[in-house]
Amino acid sequence: xxxxxxxxxxxxxxxxxxxxxxxxxxxxxxxxxxxxxxxxxxxxxxxxxxxxxxxxxxxxxxxxxxxxxxxxxxxxxxxxxxxxxxxxxxxxxxxxxxxxxxxxxxxxxxxxxxxxxxxxxxxxxxxxxxxxxxxxxxxxxxxxxxxxxxxxxxxxxxxxxxxxxxxxxxxxxxxxxxxxxxxxxxxxxxxxxxxxxxxxxxxxxxxxxxxxxxxxxxxxxxxxxxxxxxxxxxxxxxxxxxxxxxxxxxxxxxxxxxxxxxxxxxxxxxxxxxxxxxxxxxxxxxxxxxxxxxxxxxxxxxxxxxxxxxxxxxxxxxxxxxxxxxxxxxxxxxxxxxxxxxxxxxxxxxxxxxxxxxxxxxxxxxxxxxxxxxxxxxxxx
Length: 381
Ligand code: GLY
What we know:
Blueprint lengths: L4 E10 L3 H12 L4 E4 L15 E2 L10 H24 L10 E5 L2 H16 L5 E4 H7 L9 E5 L3 E2 L2 H14 L3 E3 L4 E7 L2 E7 L2 E10 L5 H6 L8 E11 L8 E3 L4 E4 L4 E5 L3 E2 L8 H14 L7 E12 L6 E4 L6 E5 L5 H16 L25
Parallel strand pairs: 1-2, 1-11, 2-8, 4-13, 11-19
Antiparallel strand pairs: 3-7, 4-6, 5-6, 9-10, 10-11, 12-15, 12-16, 12-17, 13-14, 14-15, 18-19
Helix pairs in contact: 1-5, 1-8, 2-5, 2-8
């Protein structure tokens, strides 16, 4: 007996991470009938395993469409967090306290100086700090630091809250959010994707958005689409310091440290390409705790609260994959956000929802087309 065929929706979203939930929310805001399917729970994957930095200027240095997209999305977090508070009562804890990069030797300082020049050339706001100025900004930093570079506009949110708020706001606008529901394949008619097969039946849809993080590639492969999205495992620690000894996101010697409103400091993150096992390791804990103490020695008095791991969905060029895949109508891809899923959620949600509904996207995402990988050899898949 074939599983039941469910009523049609305008947009079916595969994946309940921050990207899928943002697409669902923005499509529902436009009045679309939306159904989102998540194999585990909302935010159970990479989105829930991140510190929530909005690192517009910290992650990418070269000017171009990617930096533009990151900066646009960083700005969009402000109205998004306000809208989500109004619509759901959930505060996603948006905080703009900047990002401070610190160097502990001459080579590190040279690197920061080069980054400072590049940022200024692009007209971005950045401040060069000598050791004294850096410690004035963050007195808990290790005293032997030699220089700092401060990006006052970088910010942070609470990722699990953000994902939950997006899902709740989508639901309150009529979207169906189905957890513990695995998408197992697509319905097709000729060159059109017409819906999804799930572990609980089939659903027909005008447009399907594949936002399944590292799970996206095997699904795309079923349609013959080459989508080289691989995991880059990251481990992350939570320390309870209360009150937190730092105010900004601090990028130190081998780690970043993100102070949270509830008194935690999140220390991240390792990077292990090609590893699918999310479980944290002793090696990860050792390298992150060593780096955290090197950067802010006062953290030795903090309590070790927890450690966890997540799989960043990463492409060969470390850029996201956004838009229609060659050869298929009514299928959009939205993944490959690597280290920037939380940051990119507003702009990707708005833009992919607009594409799904046949509207002009508010950001030009044409540089991130899935087709750029079409010529790659099979062995990178
Ligand atoms: N967003 C920072 C990281 O992925 O480690």
